[in-house]
Amino acid sequence: MKTTPADPLAHIPPPAARRLAVRVTSAALSALRAGHPWLFEQGITGLSGEGQPGDLAVIFDDRRRFAAIGLYDPASAIRVRVLQQGAPAAIDRAWLSGKLAEALAWRATLPENGTTGYRLVHGENDGLPGLVIDRYDAVLVLKLYTAAWLPHLANLRAALDEVCPSRCIVLRLSRDLLRRPELLYGLTDGVILAGPAPDGPVSFSENGLQFESDVLRGQKTGFFFDQRDNRARVGKLAGGRRTLNVFAYTGGFSLYAARGGAPEVLSLDASAPALAAAQRNFDLNRHLPTVAAAEHAVLAGDAFVMLADLRRRRERFDLVIVDPPALAKRESEVSGAIQAYGRLTGLALDVLTPGGTLVMASCSSRVTDAAFFAAVNRTAQQAGRPLREIDRTGHAIDHPVRFPEGAYLKCLFATAP
Questions:
Q1: Bridge-partner residues for 56, per DSSP?
Q2: Could you give the CA distance from residue 198 to residue 202 in angstroms, rounded to a whole number?
Q3: CA 153 to chain CA mean position, Å
Q4: Looking at the domain covering 224-415, what would its CATH class be?
Q5: Which terminus of the chain is more solvent-facing, meaning fewer CB atoms within 10 Å of its CB: N or C?
Q6: Interatomic CA distance for residues 133 and 122, integer angstroms
Q7: For the chain, first and last CA: distance in Å?
Q8: What per-residue confidence (pLDDT) applies to 5?
Q9: How do residues 11-58 score in pLDDT, each as one tens digit?
Q10: Alpha carbon distance 58, 70 (integer Å)
């Protein structure tokens, strides 16, 4: 793969040759030996130098034996994101290629099922903490959540070229990084790291359906792959059912419902551009008889307000999907998020026909499974419509969970009298 003429990575210095030596508390050492990928600031008792973002930090036990190596980030409460535990390793292009190959092998069955869009690297859960890579057919989108990856981007780009060649590589940056431009070496959100820039939305397939995504400006990297299995399940439930998709974004659940035989689908979202993309996603699939036959409408507005308005208008749906964005990004927001899930459940039940199916999802990692499911069921009970649960589901295969904080997605399928 050829890089762009003015390589945006050319002026980023490589990682320092000298590694930082880190001493830690016994509690931190126990967590690392148990496989946890984070070393927090308060777990460090000694550091051999000042350290810059991306320096390789070697963690030793109290007998000066190697425990782990990771990326150092002095600007983050997570001081070291662990890459390797137990045995020393050179963190270079070859090491990165090995990790990418493991991640690709884990997802090998997805293309066999008509899926060319999926998460290739799920951060800590694939051994590359602070880094997400989403694949949109021939386009790769890297999203960074720490400046510690910047000195390693050239090696990462080369490793991707070796393991998963692409037409284009896009770099996206987290909100926290965008607030620290002095750390970014002039990089901006949506910069092209390799290949020609997309001249519009990028197309990909998911379980045989065609989608487009704005990988340069869309939320996260442009699409939410984690709900793939839940979308497929909705498609199997939607036959003959008038369907409402709340927080529809670009219409993923809506399109699956239409393919599954829903005669009418209403997509509700606060973003008019997202709903326009949902309409285009339907247009991409009008060759499918059930999609062509489905009446798809969009409704722009606040979900809480619009659901109340639908209730007043006596609109009723046989299948209601509620998939809000993260409602608790910090611990102080958890209580409010649980209340919001309860309100959304009540509003959804107000427009759900007797015997209809409710799909409620949460992607807030700080809200536990138990708290979320309890809030949904409690609200339904109070509304006099106790739920009969069909199933509780979680992550798709490309979003593996390999440490406790990695679990965030939970989804409830249930019917209500």
A1: 71
A2: 7
A3: 21
A4: alpha beta
A5: C
A6: 7
A7: 57
A8: 59
A9: 999 988 899 999 999 999 999 999 999 999 999 999 998 899 999 999
A10: 7
The residue type at 101: A
* Residue 133: both structure tokens together: 């890579």
- The CATH superfamily label for domain 93-202 reads RNA methyltransferase domain (HRMD) like (3.30.750.80)
Catalytic residues: 363
Measured at the CA of 113, the angle between CA 413 and CA 322, to 5 degrees, comes to 25
User: Per residue in 254-264, pLDDT tens?
Assistant: 999 999 999 99
Boundaries of every domain in the chain: 20-85, 93-202, 224-415
Q: Are 366 and 334 in contact (CB under 8 A)?
A: yes
Q: Are strands 202-206 and 209-213 parallel, antiparallel or unpaired?
A: antiparallel
Which residues, 6 or more positions from 68, have their beta carbon under 8 angstroms from its beta carbon? 32, 39, 58, 59, 80, 82, 83, 84, 85, 86
The C-alpha atoms of residue 185 and residue 327 are separated, in whole angstroms, by 32
pTM: 0.94
Q: What is the mean pLDDT of residues 143-158?
A: 97
